[in-house]
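Handout, section B. The chain below has 204 residues.
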Amino acid sequence: MPNPKIKHDWYQTEAFVVVTILAKNSENVEINYTETTLSVTAKLPSGNEYSLELDLAHHIVPNQCSYKVVPSKIEVKLKKRDGLRWTVLEGNPVVGEAVKPIPDAIMRNEPPKYPTSSKKPKDWDRVEKEIEKQEEEEKPEGDAALNALFQKIYGGGSDEVRRAMNKSFQESGGTVLSTNWNEVGKGKVEKKPPDGLEWKQWDS
């Protein structure tokens, strides 16, 4: 008796080719793999035998293949041997059709490296650490040094120190910066411009 017409289809991922056979409610499913063939036999609810024999276009790794049978279909997962992008499932690929290797990193599920024109891959984590180290070694000068000092005091200070710095700076119009909350907390901080200068509102 000829094989019943049952549709099969396939798709691929980087590492696998998945063959789907739309044989519903199959029983006694047997799957055999070699490096270049796939053989599927099953008993259908009608009592007929179904079989599928495929000569694969590329090599697979038989001991890393698997399958599952669900009420709606049989799904066979074939492990690619060479990590190629298959253009066809069976027979020989069409001449002239490019079959590109899939990068090893994808096959090994590694994170991609940042693109670079350099032939040598860069370790970006190390580059980042080197930049941080250089930034730490750069000694700021003048206003930058003063700001860095204030940031360090503010960042490492207690809540009281931060409150004192905020209150004194705001209430004095930027002329006083105190870290002593006991003193600052008593009342409003008066403006103290440098000697010889007078404090004025910006718009006055």
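Note. The chain has a mean pLDDT of 76. Compare this with the example in section A.
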